[in-house]
Specification:
Blueprint (H helix, E strand, L loop, with lengths): L3 H15 L4 H13 L1 H32 L3 H21 L18 H13 L2 H10 L11 H36 L1 H24 L4
Amino acid sequence: MLPSDQLFIFIMAAFIMVITPGPNMIYLVSRSVTQGKKAGVISLLGVACGFLFHIVLVSFGLSALLLTVPFLYTALKTAGILYLLYLAWEAVKPGSRSVFETRRELQADKPAKLFVMGLLTNVLNPKAAVFYLSFFPQFIRPAYGDVLFQSLFLGMTQLTVSFIVNFIIIMLAAKVKGMFAQNPRWIKVQKWFMASVLTGLAVKMALDKGK
């Protein structure tokens, strides 16, 4: 079983990742602002099922690969570091936009369509699979027990963190968007904060010698 200190680090990393602007958050915030909280929650349920899809596929894949091809751990670790640095750059590069700057108006849709759109937004997002493939191996150790169980456990932990945080964001979307609109300076602070945290996490992964 994953030690409590490692689990805490994973939960904090999952939290940082979920508050990092991406396709899912942009869609959920846009939907909540334009169509209301209920539409945002229904969309979030679709996004959550999309995460579950990736978790199952990646967990079974990782459990097989990490046990049969050990050198892949180093390759995936390197990919994870590069991915985090890429996200940090995306947050602060010239012309980048905060999720709270979303302007696109969305047409009001029925619950079934909202769910499907949320699901497809996540299932068809290659970054979700890349995140799981590159990030999970940093915390999975054969010494902790069954690799498949560890991967599924981490996946469900990440899914829980993601759902709770996104739910809160949906509830506050309109107010938060208004706050950022009135205080553009906060958008710049949010971008650099995200970039700093992501870079720090990448450095930690690079210095971690354990397997």
